[in-house]
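When time allows, look over one protein, given below as sequence and tokens. The question is which stretches look regular and which look disordered:
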Amino acid sequence: MKKLMVGMALTATLATAVTPGFGSIGGNQEKAYAAATVTYKVTASKLNVRSGAGTTYGIIGSVVKGQTLSVVSKSGSWYKINYNGRTGYVSSDYVQASGTTTPPAESTTYTVTASTLNVRSGAGTNYASIGSVTKGQKLSVVSKSGSWYKINYNGRTGYVSSDYVQASATTSPKLVVDSFKTLGNAQQVILVTADNYDTKSAKIQTFEKVDGKWKQVLTANGVLGQKGFALSKKEGDMESPTGKYTIGTAFGRYANPGTKLPYRKITANDVWVDDSKSSLYNTWQQKPANGRWTSAENMDIPAYDYGFVINYNESRTPGKGSAIFFHVGTNYTAGCTATSKEQVVSILKWLNPEKNPVIIQSPVSELDKY
């Protein structure tokens, strides 16, 4: 990782005072801890860098003992860092911070008030100007050092005078899951939405509760049954069921890709019984039928390279629908939900049964039911 950078400053070109400035659009949404007077060093022999603030997120690399980190902010017990040109997260339990910080307030918007404000290479008017920002521009503030704000400016570090920047507290935008009342102890949610009942196109979002707050993890395009969502699901209607469901067994035609869910590898004899008259209706079985059913869906197909069972119709009510999965596909399904293989695997790796994950499927207009 790159060493935490110290020092660029801004000045108002139309005023004698100089102010540290901000060049990137967008207010700060996390509490910034990376003041210029603080050094962050790794204390563990080897520390994983993850894609999100939690051990359930994928590992994107690692840092070693004594390495200095470029810390952007802190979220709960995790530091958000700059890691090889991308964003990463490391546990604060294995990072030693030395020095003092003066962090900006959480959920604060920073707006330029001067007509033109110089962005400088250090926190003072004696530093060179590296650019400028204009009145009304929103700044991406990292920290505050004295009367100067340290900012992200066009991919580099800059400073602007706080005299020409207005900081105002804002309310972080709510996620859709924040308004849900039926989640119980679920700490992971897969949300599948469509514009209406009749469309086969879907939006897939995943959310996870971290330190008591919901965070969005993934957004992807997906598809539903050929005829969209079902008002009342029936066997063979080519519609996907709406509702909130728990998540069952993960499956695939290949080895476990890394999911924590119970995993079953598909064989050539595996089928899912869709015969409503069979006592084995809506269950995973193996051929031959030997009179136990008259129809069943073959599991050894490319669509089921990877996926998981959506626990729909667990009572196995005849004719109510069977074999409802989340699987690989980009066109349409016979009643399941599908997305690209890459996204299916990503979601499988993310799912954690200890977090009681659920999947909610609904037209956007009916999300208030949840």
About this structure: The CA atoms of residues 4 and 70 lie 4 Å apart. The first helix runs from residue 341 to 350. Residues 1-37, 100-106 have pLDDT under 50 and may be disordered.
